[in-house]
Hints:
Blueprint (H helix, E strand, L loop, with lengths): L1 H24 L19 H11 L13 H14 L1 H6 L1 E5 L3 E6 L9 E6 L22 E2 L2 E3 L7 H16 L8 E6 L10 H10 L6 E10 L10 E8 L1 E10 L3 E2 L8 H14 L9 H9 L5 H8 L1 H12 L3 H7 L2 E9 L5 E2 L2 E10 L5 H12 L4 E11 L10 H13 L4 E7 L15 E9 L13 E3 H17 L1
Parallel strand pairs: 3-6, 3-7, 7-16, 8-15
Antiparallel strand pairs: 1-2, 2-6, 4-5, 5-17, 7-8, 9-13, 9-14, 10-12, 11-13
Amino acid sequence: xxxxxxxxxxxxxxxxxxxxxxxxxxxxxxxxxxxxxxxxxxxxxxxxxxxxxxxxxxxxxxxxxxxxxxxxxxxxxxxxxxxxxxxxxxxxxxxxxxxxxxxxxxxxxxxxxxxxxxxxxxxxxxxxxxxxxxxxxxxxxxxxxxxxxxxxxxxxxxxxxxxxxxxxxxxxxxxxxxxxxxxxxxxxxxxxxxxxxxxxxxxxxxxxxxxxxxxxxxxxxxxxxxxxxxxxxxxxxxxxxxxxxxxxxxxxxxxxxxxxxxxxxxxxxxxxxxxxxxxxxxxxxxxxxxxxxxxxxxxxxxxxxxxxxxxxxxxxxxxxxxxxxxxxxxxxxxxxxxxxxxxxxxxxxxxxxxxxxxxxxxxxxxxxxxxxxxxxxxxxxxxxxxxxxxxxxxxxxxxxxxxxxxxxxxxxxxxxxxxxxxxxxxxxxxxxxxxxxxxxxxxxxxxxxxxxxxxxxxxxxxxxxxxxxxxxxxxxxxxxxxxxx
Length: 485
C-alpha cells in the first residue's frame, strides 16, 4: 500500500512539474519594438465622404428585382468625384456591372501583389425599427463625435477608409514596392456571388497569385475576453462554412378535435429538439488553437497553465468555451433553426411542416457531413432533408500566421494601436474573402475599429455608427499597412 501511495505521489509531482514547465516556457507572441506610426493629419473631408457614402442607399436584397441599380450607379459616380487621383492613376474595372477592381502598380514587379477588399452594399433597415435610431439610418448625420448610418461599420467604412488612404498616399506621390489590388463587392450581404466571386474568378483567369488578402472580419475588442482586460485585435485566419437544410415533415391532416398521437408539427418539433440536444462534437483545433497560443502568454497564471497544457486539459477548456454562445461557436459546427412554416388555421391540422435550419460549419467538417449528421441524428424516415445549395460554402482553409501578410498586419496594428494584444481567431460568419482561396493562401479578416460587446450589436442592427476618431484611425491604418507591406 505504501509503495502504491509512493508511486502515486511521485506521479503527481512529475505531473505538476510537467504542467509548470509547459506553463513557464511559453512566451509572448506579440511583436516588440514596433515604433508608433507617425502622426498624420487626416482631413475632416474623410468624415464627410463617409457621411455622403452612407446617404446613398446601396441596399442588397435576396430578391434581386428589389435592387435599386440607380443607387449603385450613384455610389460609383460618387467615388469618381471623391477620389480623383485614385481614378486617374489606378486602373479601374467594373466587374459584372457593379463590383469594382482597381490595380495600383508597384515599383517591384517581382513581388506578389496584395489585395485590400470590402463591400459597399448594406442590409435593409427592418421595417418599423426606424424610430429606434437616434439618427436616421441613411441620413449620414455627424453628431456628438460619431458618424451615424447603415454602412458605417458594415462595410462602407472599409471601402471609404481604403480609398481615403490611397488618395492620401497619391497626393504624396507615393508608389508602393508591391502592386496592390482594391476589390469592392456590391452584394456581399446576399452571398457575394455576383461581386466578389466574379472578381476572384477574373483574377484566377489572369493567373494572378496574391501575397495576401485583407478583408473585413475581426475587430479591436476593447473589453477583451475572459481573463484579459486589455483590448484585443482579432485577425480572422479562417471562417466557418455555411449551409441551410430544409426539413419537411408530412402527417395526417384533418380537424384539430381528433388529432393523431403525433402531428406533423410534433414530428418536426421532435426532430429539432433532437438536433439541439445532440450538438456537433466540439474541437479545439485550427484557428481556435491559434487563438489559444496567442492569448495564453497574456493570461493570468491559472488560465495560462490550462492553455499551456491543452494535451491534458483540452476537455476542461472546451467545456468553459462552450458555456457562452461566442465560445461555443468557436469550437463546433453550430445549429440554428431559423424558419418554420406550418398551418393556416388554429383548428386545422397541417399536413406539411417545413423548417429551415442554418449551420455554420467548423473547419474540418463539410456541407455533406452536416447533412449526414442531421439524417443520422433525426433518424426519422418520414422527415425529408434537402440542402438549399444557393448559398452553400465549405469552411475556409486556415491561413498561417508565419507569413509576410500576417506579420505586416501585426506590425501595422502594433504601430497604430500600441496597447492592444494581437491574436488570430476564427470568423464565425461569412465574408467575401472566401472566394479568393484559389488565388491566395494567406487570407486575413480584420477591421481596425474599436468595438465593445454593445457595439458588436450595431452592424445589421440599430444605431450603427463609428466615432470620428475611429474612422480617422481606419484611414491611418491602411496608409501604414500599404507602407509596411
